[in-house]
Amino acid sequence: MQLHVLEGSVAVASEDTKFVVSLAESTGWVKLEKGQGEDQPSAEGGFRAQTQEQFFLVEAKPGDEGSDEIVLTISNLNVGEQEDRPASGQGHVEKANSTDNQKKAKGGRRWPVGVAPEVRAFVEWTAPGKPQEAKRPFCCDSCVFTSSRISSFNRHMKTHSTEKPHVCHLCLKAFRTVTLLRNHINTHTGTRPYKCGDCVMAFVTSGELVRHRRYKHTHEKPFKCSICKYASVEASKLKRHTRSHTGERPFQCSLCSYASKDTYKLKRHMRTHSGEKPYECHVCHTRFTQSGTMKIHVLQKHSKNVPKYQCPHCATIIARKSDLRVHLLNLHTYKATEMKCRYCTAVFHERYALVQHQKTHKNEKRFKCEYCSYACKQERHMTVHIRTHTGEKPFTCVSCNKCFRQKQLLNVHFRKYHDADFIPTVYQCPKCSKSFSRWVLCE
DNA sequence: GACTGTCCCGCCCTCTGCTGGGAAGAC
DNA sequence: AGTCTTCCCAGCAGAGGGCGGGACAGTC
What we know:
By secondary structure, the protein is α+β, with helices and mostly antiparallel strands. Helices cover 32% and strands 17% of the residues. The radius of gyration is 46 Å and the shape is elongated. InterPro entries: Znf_C2H2_sf, Znf_C2H2_type. This is C2H2-type domain-containing protein.
C-alpha cells in the first residue's frame, strides 16, 4: 500500500479506514494505528487550504505478527531540502540563548534521529489530545513556533541552525540570509534607501523609518502602560518603563550592592568604581563622569547670560534649580514647631521670616548700661564698659603688676615697656613733618 | 527570494532631581 | 576663633527619547 500525505491532511488508501499516527521510538518509524481514531483528524478534516502542496512518501508494513497494526514509514519527498539541514535538536541547543519567544522549547516527546521535522510537526499535530490549532499544523518541537505553511516552517527550522552562509566581504561577519547581509553592507557603505518624507533622515531598513516616523512625526505610541498613562513607540521602552512600577532591577553591579533597571545605568554606575571621567570641559579641561554634569558646569562657569532662578517668596536668586528647591525647603517651608527669635519674644513658623525678623535687631544697641546711658550692639563690649563702673581690671602685667580692663591694653603696654625688640610705629604729618605715635593730620 | 513589519537588544543622549562636601559669610 | 548657615558645585541615579542594527515571520 502506498499513501501520500497532503500538507495538513491525510490521504488514505481506503475511505473507511482511519489511522492514528504515532511514533515507534525504538525504530524511528511512525505508526498509523488503525481504527482507534474517533477523535483523530480524518481525511476529511478540511486542511487543504494551502496553495503549495508538499508530499510525503508513506510506506506501509504489517505490524507485529498477530497484531492489527500497520507500520508506516513516512519520508519527505523534498530530500534536497532536508539534507542540508542539521538535526533540529542541535538547533535547539544553539538557540537556547535566543529571543524569549524562541526560548520556550516545548517539553514534548523525544524524536529519534532521522525523522524529518515536517514529519514530526505533522505527527505532533495529529497526536491524541493535541488541541487543533486551526490551520497552523506545523509546530516546531524546539520552540513555540507554528505555521500554516510548510515553506515558513522550513525557513523557521533554519533559525535553529548555526549555518550562516552569507559573509560580509568587508568585516567577515556572517548572516543567514541575503537580506540580512545586504542590510549589513548598507551600514558599511552608508546606503540608506528608506528616506523620511517629512525630514532629512534616512535609514537602512523600513522598520527604522517607521519607528523614526512614530518618534518624530506621527507620535503614534502603540505600547501603553496598564498602570499609568505612559505610552511608548517601542515595546522595549514599555518593558523598561514597567520596571519603574515593579521595582525590578535585573542588572546587578559586580562590585557593590547597586542594581539598575537598564544596562545603560549600570554602565554609567560602573564609572563610580573605575573613576572614568569621559567628559571634558573644553574651556578649563575639568573632567566629569556624566555629560549632563559637564553641561551644567560649562553653563554656570563659562557662559554669559547664565540662567538664574528667582525664589518666588523672597529676593534670593540662585544659580541652580535644585538649589532653589533646597532653599525653598529650608527657608520657606511651614514648620509646625515654633522658632523663637534669639533677641526677643517673637515666634515664627517659617525660617525665612525668622531670619528677616532677627535682622531687624541687627543695628539695635540692645545692650544698655545700668549705670549710665551707654548702649552697644555686642555683649562683650558691654562687659568691658561695665568695668569702667566697677573698677575691675582683670588683666595684670607679669613684669610690673600693672592692671588693665582690656586684654588689648595689656598687650600694648607689655610691648611698649617690656619688649626690647618693640619698634613703635611713627606717623609723620605730611604738612608739618612732625612725628606722632598715632595718625594725626595737623590743621 | 525579496520585501516588509515587528521585535528585541544595545547604545547614547537629555532632562531632572537629590545629595553631600566645601567655601564663604554671618554671628 | 569657633559655630552656624547659605550657597556653589560636582557626583550620581531615575526616567525616558531616539536611533543602530540584527533576527525573524508574514506575504507576495
